[in-house]
Description:
four-stranded antiparallel sheet, Rossmann fold, alpha/beta, six-stranded mixed sheet, ABC transporter transmembrane region fold
Amino acid sequence: MKLFQAKRDEQDDLNYEGNALLRMMSYMKPYVGTVAFCFFLVLVITALELYKPILIGGAIDNFITGSYGPGEMVQERFAGVLRAAALYVGVLLLLFVCNRIQYVLLQSTGQKIIYEVRNQLFTHVESLSMRFFDLTPVGKIVTRVTNDVEALNEMYSNILIKLFKNIIKIVGLAVVMLMLNVRMALLSFVLVPAIVVLTVIFKQISRRTYQITRTKITALNTFLSENLSGMKVIQIFGREKEKNEEFAGKSEELYRANYRELMVFAIFRPMIYMLSVLALIIVLAGGSKSVLSGTLSIGTLYIFLQYINTFFEPIQELAEQLSTLQSAIASAEKIFTLLDVKPTVPDPEEPVELREVKGRIEFKHVWFAYDGEDYILKDVSFTIEPGQRVAFVGATGAGKSSILNLIGRYYDIQKGEILLDGVDIRTLKKEQLRAAIGQVQQDVFLFTGDISGNIRLRNEEISDDAIVKAAHEVNADRFIQRLPGKYQEPVSERGATFSAGQRQLLSFARTLAFDPSILILDEATANIDTETEQWIQEALETLMTGRTTIMVAHRLSTIQHADKIIVMHKGRIRESGTHQELLEQNGIYKKLYQLQIM
């Protein structure tokens, strides 16, 4: 199954429908003026580079090997050489200035585009529905936002301009060579067909190798992300050796992919160099014969020798740049594939806005399945009044957590309706809906930063005083005040330096600071020690006052005082009532209760 999934993921990566290159170009529209100026600089730079050999060749013919009358002095010839040298230095200085300006503009523009792409990609990922994250490995997403985006940098900063420059340079060289001497130009072009064939073959092979390499990088990053997160489990069960072998296998696959890239270059580059040397020999042999016969000047031969070296250099660079472009396109295809993923839970086009969320929740004949028609919830109906405290109980897989996820519309139902204050939640903006819900989960996630930042979550509307007040009301300040940094105490990744109970208290403080109308407690006291649970129980009354509260708990002792307890079994509601009423029904709830008190 894992092998099938990996193969499917690889095929999804390699088969992008659309023109990735044209789509990449669209990001350059805001900078079209800058790019156009850089193209103009390319024309200037190319003209100057073409002029350099002509300048030296002319000096050779006019002031060194040319014939002079008896009245012409050596000083005049030397002065001519100096003028040519001074002009040559001026050309070099102008080239330096143009290249420098072009480099700065391109790098600046490239970084701006990469910044935009990276932000767009992360914003899009944030907008995707939870089902996407259920099915997509974290490492794969990280690779898209980091490695693949960075692979585009070279294209925007260098490759496009250099491609244009080399094409212009090749065309310019061909035109100038033909204007100087048609016979010598044709000698220089003898091997061009062979180079074109090699370049086409290289382009096809390199594109495939780059695609495979990017896919292998994704697989390795995915493996690392998953196994570093689960390192404790690996060490508990002593599977270090096996995981190391698995990593070595994936690392070897990446090595082989990189080696294939290396071999492609190792074959192509020497072949182009060999052809350039062969072309130089042909030009030198044919040109020397013409010089000896008096039909070609030494200066013109020098120009052709310089041009033949220069002519093959852009051809070789062009092929390599096309290869780099293929790498960028391969990364772009993966990025655009992710950008084209549509949220399965979209916002309505014309959303309804609730002026005030009171907290009345109603499920009307709800059917829900994560995939296909394998329904987790089957014809579920219930009503929770504002301010009411309702608990859901049942065996694992009964559908309790699914109900909580549906209230926040992290998934969409297939049949029925879910109403908030009489309004279908599918007609509300997700932002307003979720802002009205405060959810405390069993597995608390803390971000790297400090305690204050983990309570505020970058919501600057929540003041420092509000943070302290929220922490005080849920008894979190009892341990925060004992920390060296108090509310500025550093929090490591996932809050690893805090106990499960302390993380849960911080989660309560976070929820209270956002002041939701609806409170969801998903096994909120499952992993908490007795002392911490007592602190939380003291704070729960304050936390739940004036709020619709929905609880899910396996320990029935924590929900006995709920206004209503709903018993779920295999996706359906089987019983409903208060704790005492359910015990009197002598049904599923009583059996669960008796199992826990025995």
